[in-house]
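A common beginner's mistake is to predict each chain separately and then try to dock the pieces by hand. The better habit, illustrated here, is to supply every component at once so that their relative placement is modeled jointly.
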Amino acid sequence: MDMAQHLSETELSARILRHAVPKMSELNIPVTPNNYSVWYEYYLGINLDLKRAIDGLLANEVSFTATVCEGLFTTYIQQHSPEVVENVQIETQLLINQLLAKIAGMSHGNVKFSSSLKAFDKALKTNPSSEVLQQLVDDITTELDGIIDANIAMDQSLNTINQEVSALKSEMSELRSVVMTDQLTSLNNRRAFDEEVISHIDTFNQKEFESSLLVVDIDHFKKFNDVHGHLIGDKVLTYVAQALKQSVKGDDFVARYGGEEFVILLPNTGIDEAKIVANNLRQKIAKRNLTIGKEKKLPLGNITVSVGCASLKNEDSKDSYFIRADEALYRAKSAGRNCVMVESESN
Ligand SMILES: Nc1nc2c(ncn2[C@@H]2O[C@H](COP(=O)(O)OP(=O)(O)OP(=O)(O)O)[C@@H](O)[C@H]2O)c(=O)[nH]1
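With all components supplied together, the output reads:
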């Protein structure tokens, strides 16, 4: 279930809270901040590795022992979003404590009421005087009023908690976006790319779906750094990043893989079409005579890129998919650069 897609922030937080706490109790998982972070992300549905791992454990009826819970937290939360964890831990603990205290208060009120009802029932069977009866009715009414008040207070607390969880959730998504963004170019970074590839592979396994991958590398990039300095090198990287972003459609996913290497995932695109996209962007970049600086223009000449293309196949993993496109890129470099190569037919 991917809740994140259809609901408003407040609804989403409330829904996750309502699913996560009962599920944890059903599985005998203590509601600690670490465990809650795991189940929060599980019901949020966008941490695909975590979701797959938990679904596997549930399908195999593995017991969620302290060690299993700790393993899930360390592998899929702490390493995945380390910046998020500390914040979430403190705030989640506070929220859960508040919630549990309220729930405990409510059930205490209900137990008391139910024993008053039993006493009332028993007294009725003994033919009580009208004074005694009146006293019993008064007692019950007082307790009922108490329960109604507690219900109202509970509703208010839940609203407050929902709002706080919602604020926490948007803080989390802001942090997530920082963690997923390349600071120099503002493109998606490698971590975001890894998640996107996994989602392409999932979609591919579930329905008819084509996906192609371009690996784009700036030719002789080192010379920009050597001749003009690192800062100009950075500007060239930013320029190419923007050019790539502007050369593709909205659904296409552009990321900086590292150094002067970029990746573009093209959903619903076969290899022939991917090759056309690759050649278009290559030509667009090569055509421009780049200068840097507004008043004193520094000529940098033509920048060219080499591109390797692959398309997703059965049994592909994130790594095998990337490696095929990267090998094609290597052949483009060997063939003289400023060209596009497609994965070899034998692969
Ligand atoms: N300015 C800048 N340079 C970087 C950054 N990341 C990597 N580099 C540089 O990119 C250069 C890559 O050089 P090479 O791997 O030799 O590749 P190349 O010069 O592009 O040559 P080919 O790929 O073979 O065409 C190295 O000098 C790195 O220091 C960065 O963030 N900023």
